[in-house]
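Here is a tokenized protein:
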Amino acid sequence: MRASLLQIAVNEDETVGARRERVASLVREQAGSDLVVLPELWPTGAFAYDLFEEYAETLDGPTVTAMAAAAAEASVWLHAGSVVERAPDGTLYNTSVVLGPDGGLRSSYRKIHRFGFDKGEAAMMGGGEEIVTVRLPGTGAGTGTDGTVAGLATCYDLRFPEQFRQLTDAGAELLVIPAGWPARRREHWTLLARARAVENQAYVLACCSAGTHGGVEQAGHSRIIDPWGEVIAEAGEDEQILTADLDLSRVAKTRADFPVLRDRVLGLPDPRPGARDA
């Protein structure tokens, strides 16, 4: 599989409409890739809270429509990052969208862990409740396969390893994580992305935005990490397209050669005094 991460610069001097058109053009240029990934909330910026209400849209709104057309023109699987979704009841969600090579909507994921500690996203948006995987036909390790299973997570989710273990248990071989991670915590971004790869023995595609929005400088440093935790491609701090070829057979090989997942012990006894007798 050839994967391309588009580390988009999200700056306040560019309108949402202009950025949407520019990103659609960049997606169309990735025709040689199998999977293209965009950052979290790139139309507005993950910290531009004042724009969330104004630019909230349904999943057939202007951003998803433009990305669907670009994916179809390039004939690529497109993880279109995330948008501010407005649900029928008016609730806002930070929702990731996966589009097929024909432009069809194949999956969506509402971010489970909202950042802000009772402010910002955590106060303004509803939280998702579902662990989401999506099968990408035509991208498997060998001929005749049904395709790679990708597990979906977003930004702050990266701090919660239990979500990624559930994605692995659901069959994920590839973990796709769009983000709008702050530069001041860049070391956490790069460390946790590698940790999720190592502990789940899966490829990690971690795509962050660049630029500054809402007064928050972005971390950049998007990364493609293999199932052994080795960084095989990494971006810098500015807008950049990061492309690498993934040998998907390495997931099964790593899990077979070093079968740590097999040795998990679930259902440990409750450590509280008297719990066994309750």
Observations:
- The chain has a mean pLDDT of 94.
- The domain at 2-263 is CATH 3.60.110.10 (Nitrilase/N-carbamoyl-D-aminoacid amidohydrolase).
- The longest strand covers residues 77-86.
